[in-house]
Every structure is written in structure tokens, then in C-alpha cells.
Amino acid sequence: MQTHLCSIVVFTLILLSIAAPRAEQHPPMPAGMTHEEHLAQIQQDAALKKRGAAAMGFDQENTTHHFLLTSDGGVIEVGVNEVSDALNRDAIRSHLKEIAGAFARGDFAKPFATHGEIPPGVKTMQQRLGAITFRYEDTPGGGRVLIRTADRKAKTAVQEFLRYQIREHRTRG
After folding, report:
1. Which conformational region is residue 156 in: left (phi greater than 0), alpha (psi within -120 to 50 degrees), or beta?
2. pLDDT of residue 23
3. Are 68 and 74 in contact, with CB atoms under 8 Å apart?
4. Among 4, 23, 150, 162, who pairs with 74 as Cys (CB 3.0-4.6 Å)?
5. How far apart, in whole angstroms, are the C-alpha atoms of residue 31 and residue 133?
6. Of residues 36 and 173, more confidently modeled
7. For residue 8, what pLDDT is reported?
């Protein structure tokens, strides 16, 4: 009886180890999407993550992005998925410090490198740089860039940029 129980447990563990990676590799197909569209989306997402890893310098699978809209602009926040992941946490902090400085100079090369196109809002943000502040802050799991402005057109541009990021990175904000 004990041998039979051990066999069942081992068999179950083997099945779980085989099934779990497959579920991660191929997310469920959204309603209303054809199989071909779903495969194309999976390929697009993989390409974005690859370009993002190269441009940002940290693992996209082990980190989480948040793009938040605020009454005076918005926030870009990135954190590690595992608290013990100091390597990615430090890389996030380095990247976001660099991003805050680059954006303040009107340099949006990293988002272009990540997305393969100039995100919406960038041109207006560059034109209205004097009305926007970009401030970096550490967070326990990484960091964030606070983007603030009192200028209506600049705020609209910042939020266009952030909505694009939400859409592209498939975050909920």
C-alpha cells in the first residue's frame, strides 16, 4: 500500500512539473482573439521583453512595472518580484536614476529602444521640458520616477506616454 501511495505521489509531481512550465509559456487566449492573433501577440510581447531587458539592464520576467496617473502627472515604478533579488533591484535603481536624468534632458532614447517607436506624448514632453520635473526615489523593491507638472499640455503628454506604457507592458497601472 505504501509503495502504491509513493508511486501516485511521484506520478503527480511529475505531471505537475511538466504542466506548470507549459502554462507559463503559453498564456490563455483572450476572448475574441484568433489563434493567429494570439500567437502574434505572444511574439510581440517576447520581443518587447527582449528589447526591454537590453535597454533597461534587468530581467523583465523577475520584475514588475507600474505606470500610474496622478493629478499632476504620473509615476513610473519598477520593483523586483522576489525581495531577495538584490541584483535586479540594484539594476532597477540604476536604470530609473538614469531615466529621470535622461528625461529631464529631453532624452527618450530608452523608451524608443524598448518599444521600437517614439511613444505618444514624447514630442510634447520634450517641447515643454521646463514645465516638467522628473524625480527619482528608491522603493523597498526597486525605485520610481515621479513626473510632475502644473502645465495642462505637459500633463496631457505625460499621461499619454504613461497610458502607452500601461498598454505596451500590459500592466493595470
Report:
1. alpha
2. 44
3. yes
4. 162
5. 40
6. 36
7. 62
**Radius of gyration over every alpha carbon of the chain, rounded to an integer in angstroms:** 20
Mapped onto helix, strand or coil, the DSSP state of residue 58 is: coil
Residues 6+ apart with CB under 8 A from 62: 80, 81, 82, 85, 88
Q: How far is CA 134 from CA 10, 107, 130, in A?
A: 54, 12, 11
Helices (H) and strands (E) in the chain, counts: 6, 4
pLDDT of residue 86: 96
DSSP state of 71: T
CA distance 173 to 162: 9
Cell representation of residue 61: 520576467
Domain assignments of the chain as residue spans, ordered by start: 47-169
